[in-house]
Design brief:
This is Hyoscyamine 6-dioxygenase. Keywords: Dioxygenase, Iron, Metal-binding, Oxidoreductase. Belongs to the iron/ascorbate-dependent oxidoreductase family. The chain is α+β, with helices and mostly antiparallel strands and 342 residues long. The protein has eight helices and 14 strands. The protein has one domain: B-lactam Antibiotic, Isopenicillin N Synthase, Chain (Jelly Rolls, Sandwich). It is 26% helix and 20% strand. The strands form three sheets. Strands 1-2-10-7-12-5-4-3 form an eight-stranded mixed sheet. Strands 6-11-8-9 form a four-stranded antiparallel sheet, with no helix packed on it. The N and C termini lie far apart (41 Å). The relative contact order is 0.17.
Length: 342
């Protein structure tokens, strides 16, 4: 079992984590002064009409320009968020023997632990351990989650419910913004929920390695808690990258490939990556809201007309996942595979 978290500190970067020069992170952040938009959800009470139109406009503007934004005053208590980050950190700190039984690369398991990434098949490894968790419906998967740390299941259950509530509200606002039925994304299009918990230990030389490859999420929408220990997430912006600076108790929201296809390319699934740092371990929790495997995906008919013909083919979601994996999560290749006349 090869996990970075089994060793508390590294003095040098092992050779297998050193990327060739052309793939190393470079100082190509477009402008340190450019920040993602921050949207105030007003305590999560966005079912009323008060301020609703303004929030919708802010989401649409941020989505079209960046494909990313952060939300504050979202209605989830700071304790719920902090408990989730803490219990995940505690999991990675457990003894190697305790974690060993969860180590796997079997994607069909409801919970497994691994390192690096399953998408990039090069010999160089990414500076990351991760848990992959199927988490909704909770009653279907809870017995397959670890019992330790002792409060892991209780914290994960509560967190899953609360994050799904945020995602549901955001999807309703997005639907309204496009003139779709408010419940357009409810049901089959958002029934699935998976979670990926990433652990990036301090790296002796962050210039040599990467935490995670540039990629776009394959799902509908992602709700990410990145903690405040260090800045590590970067989003593609124009010809470079911008730092997604941590904000206490905020969530980072980004759109997946499915939302780009359903909106016929109006909202973009934007590439993002993780870099490392030498000062502190960093933990992030990404919750992916996704369609059922047998869901039929296509551009919404309301998004298509003579001036805006459909840009993407129709498909079954499970077929998209297969192609996404076969193409190593590379944005250009994945979207080209589903473009009409692509």
């Amino acid at each position: 079992m090869e996990l970075l978290s089994n060793q508390p500190r590294y003095d040098t970067v092992p050779d297998k984590y050193i990327f060739p020069p052309e793939k190393r992170p470079v100082n190509n952040v477009v402008n340190p002064s450019i920040n993602l938009p921050v949207i105030d959800l007003r305590g999560g009470c966005i079912d009323s009409d008060i301020g609703r139109d303004e929030i919708i406009r802010d989401i649409m503007k941020a989505g079209k320009e960046f494909g990313f934004f952060q939300v504050i005053n979202h209605g989830i208590q700071a304790k719920t968020l902090n408990d989730m980050l803490q219990v995940c950190e505690n999991f990675f700190k457990m003894p190697a023997e305790e974690k060993k039984r969860y180590y796997s690369d079997d994607m069909s398991r409801a919970f497994f632990l691994n390192s690096s990434t399953q998408y990039d098949q090069s010999e160089t490894r990414y500076w990351r351990d991760y848990m992959r968790i199927s988490c909704y419906p909770i009653e279907e998967f809870i017995d397959q989650w670890p019992e330790n740390p002792e409060n892991f299941r209780a914290v994960l259950s509560e967190y899953t419910v609360r994050v799904r509530e945020i995602a549901s509200k955001l999807l309703k606002l997005i639907a309204e913004g496009f003139g779709l039925d408010r419940d357009y994304f409810c049901g089959d299009l958002s029934n699935g929920t998976k979670m990926k918990v990433n652990y990036y230990p301090p790296c002796p030389d962050p210039s040599l390695t990467m935490g995670l490859l540039p990629h776009c999420d394959r799902q509908l929408i992602t709700v990410l808690a990145q903690g405040t220990a260090a800045c590590g997430l970067q989003a593609k912006y124009k010809e470079g990258w911008i730092d997604v600076k941590p904000i206490p108790n905020a969530f980072v929201i980004n759109f997946g490939h499915q939302l780009e296809i359903i909106t016929n390319g109006v909202l973009k699934s934007v590439e993002h990556r993780a870099i490392t740092n030498s000062g502190a371990a960093r933990t992030s929790v990404a919750v992916f809201i996704m369609p059922d495997m047998e869901s039929f995906i296509s551009p919404a008919k309301e998004m298509v007309n003579e001036e805006n013909p459909p840009l993407y083919k129709s498909f079954v979601f499970k077929d998209f996942l297969r192609i996404y994996t076969d193409l190593s999560a590379k944005r250009v290749d994945v979207m080209e595979a589903f473009k009409i006349n692509g």
